[in-house]
Design goal:
Amidase signature (AS) enzymes; 17 helices; single chain; alpha/beta; globular
Length: 489
Amino acid sequence: MGIALWREQLQRGEVSARELTDHHLARIEAVDPSVHAFLEVTSARARADADRIDAARAAGDPLPPLAGVPLAIKDNLCTKGVRTTCSSRMLEGFVPPYESTVTDRLWRAGAVLLGKTNLDEFAMGSSTETSAFGPSRNPWDLERVPGGSSGGSAAAVAAGECVASLGSDTGGSIRQPAAFCGVVGLKPTYGRVSRWGLVAFASSLDQVGPFTTSVADAAELLQVMAGEDPRDATCLKAPVPDYAAALQQPLEGVRVGLIRECFDQPGLDPQVKASVLAAAEQLRILGCDLVEVSCPRFNDGIATYYVIAPSEASANLARYDGVKYGYRAAADLSADSLAVMTARSRAEGFGDEVQRRILIGTYALSAGYVDAFYRKAQQVRTLIRRDFDHAFTTVDVLLSPTSPGTAFRFGAHTEDPLAMYLADLLTIPANLAGLPAISLPCGFDDQGLPIGLQLIAGVLEEPKLLQVAHHYEQAAQVMASRPQAALVA
């Protein structure tokens, strides 16, 4: 059920918020032992939230835009009084005394908190296999990963455990799991949504966004989430447009650019390529003009990202030292210095992938190397942004696959970090340039696994992005013809 339809039924008294909440809590109880999308289910709070909405409706009070909508929240967004672990032993017992800006806006809009979802530890990963509390599974095939790092949030929506969820996207962590799980995933423009209360991975790249089952629902959530926040210096002051109104604008004359470098990838699955090109043809039939464009430095994005992101992570995660924040190693009489205690705490509290990225980042920022690595990466980042700027002088929206392939099996890349990193090859450049991007289903491979279509727009051009995505979704009706899947609702 879409958010708009739910709101109408709630206002007419045809269904209650408590009924919808109980339905999703029952669904979680039935399927989450197999999916493991949730780290914590807040049943009592969810029912209390829903009862307040029902009481307000019964009293004739005006209902807020997300009244009674059951949501799941990625466990790297701080929720006051509810454990926030980042799927790490380092924060296993952390209960925030404050609420993130984005979740606070959702609760004020009437949304109901079902619980916190699993992720790759500190959002570092592409499969949700690095979680300290065990991996999440893909509802389409339980032997495959849901993507990452927001794998739990994507899986929860795909399995029907919530109406929508929140994730964070640093290099593709919303869009790639959305593609793997056959749902819609939106990464807004950098600064469009506040990062205050999001546990930082790479501060110049992180962005919060929604997972939904439709583009219209993504627009509804973005409407509530977006806007200026004085507590986040990187949050933009630009007015928030009416995203729902943008969905209905006609497509005639909209110019869609096919990024040549994305379709020339040697590792691109032929089925993914064919499905995405078919989606492009559907847009042409709907009235769009298709144009081939080149972003020459697009493929430099992954090398650039894996200097910048670990460098920023090494600085952000330095606070977890066993003294001020995070896990502290048990007392050891042989540990006669602060340095030894800190080293032990970090070695025991952080998993292998987080430690790997901290080491990479620390090296890149070290004396004698910062110019050769970090500064050079920032220069290439500027060139990547200029390529996008040039492309947007001739087109309105860019089109590519979301990921080179579909969901892979557990363990397929765990011994090869470079192969794992390549799963984000096509999503990273939009983060480096700070651009809004969306992934939505465009077909299935011969295993019945979803394929994701990625659309990218210019800075603050979410209305255009959502417009094109919505028209494609309505015309293609991809999920209406979906094959049988393990647990997909």
